[in-house]
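Narrative of activities, Objective 1.

The group set out to show that a structural description can be obtained from nothing but a protein's sequence at a throughput compatible with the screening campaign. Below is one input-output pair from the validation batch, recorded exactly as produced.
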Amino acid sequence: MAQNRLSEIRKLRLEKVKKLKYLGIDPYPTSYPKKDTISESRDKEGKEAQTAGRVMSLRGHGRILFADLQDETGKIQLFFQEKILTKEGMKLLRLVDSADFLGVKGKVIKTKVGEITIDVSEFTILSKSLRPLPSKWHGLKDTEERYRKRYLDLLLDPKVRKRFQTRSDLVRHIRDYLYSQKYTEIETPTLQTLYGGTNAKPFKTRLNALSADMYLRIADELYLKRAVVGGFERVFEICKDFRNEGMDQSHSPEFTMIEYYESYADYHRVMENTEGLMKYCAKKVRGKEELVIQGKKVDLSGKWPKITMTDAIKKYLDLDVEKASQKDLLVFAKKEKIEVGKNTSKGLLIYEIFDHLIPKNLTKPTWVVDYPIESSPLAKKHPEKEGFVQRFEGYIGGIELCDGFSEINDPVDQRQRFEGEQQAMQEGKEDAQPLDEEFLTALEYGMPPLGGIGIGIDRLTMFFTDTWSIRETILFPLMRSKSKTKKKSKNANPKN
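Output recorded for this entry:
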């Protein structure tokens, strides 16, 4: 809508606010006795309903007026007529616009064309809007505008509201499932003196009260493990994590993660439990153990197949990475345009080759297991495969859904891994993990055998809603400030 037109509408609506106040009517009252939702009102044909919501449209004139009223449960038609509301009531109705909030009372009827309608006998203005809603037919077409004005996106598109309702339902069902498995939900710090728990570049800030540099949490793993040392045998947390890295279709610097850990369990037990969680959520959200991903049905039932990382590479690339030398893998990576350093270890080359070339093939639910030790500084060494660890990732639809391990509980081994990360950090690896002496001290008091996993809630919502952009599953995604966007546009090279 043109800015001049918008300014004119806003001016007219402000005049209506003044008129309401002149008439002794508060255009922004403090409350309203909403006795029925709109969905409940629709089921009260022949009876009186009292509900409230937002006016989505107005039509008609003179002695009869129709409107559509919407709340989070649905929409219903309103019927205003002079013979019930009187001339004074109809005059007051002229001060109502689309986007205003109304409370209404009246008998629920069915019109000649069969539409459920409230024949309004009383109405109350609950909130006067100053801006009109975007056109019902055109809505918000610009993706960036949809993200910046998510409130309008939610209001105008039921599919968007449904997506975020599904996200909320998933979180609730995850909690229910883990509670049923006797897990305890705990909270860990967002501000940390030392980051850790995964390989990621952190956000750094300053805590003035302690005159100390702090980091935003990149994972909650090391604190959850401290809780296990303290005697909690099964723990989980759903929280925001922050990683100062890139943004793409499946990554956001700010995201929501659940991590859960089970004492006396290995990675096979964690995979089994996670399969149960996914099937439980599918039944609750979809009514069956099945998802639709990019038009294809994906069956979650039964046992999910497991394949080692090296076997997956052999299967899909016909490359035996275990027999190949570091030099062979370096040549292969460069041929495939995978950015690696000339001194990259064989283990990391295996991981990078897999990560760049294999996931697109993993459309059905699949566990990829046994990762190179260099890629997994917190995973327990594999007892039968030298140079590998008991780590797994779950893939569906070609995208990683979760990541877990048999956790290290040997403090000497863990220290050596951290020291290896320090060497990598000195060589320029920005996402290497720092050596956490406080965590190592906790580990030296003894931690039982432990299995753990991390699952991105944003990505999980992508799977359950068949939405293949992470920003579509984050209610208010990170955006470049408008001033910087305009400046960038202004400085852009003109087209030839």
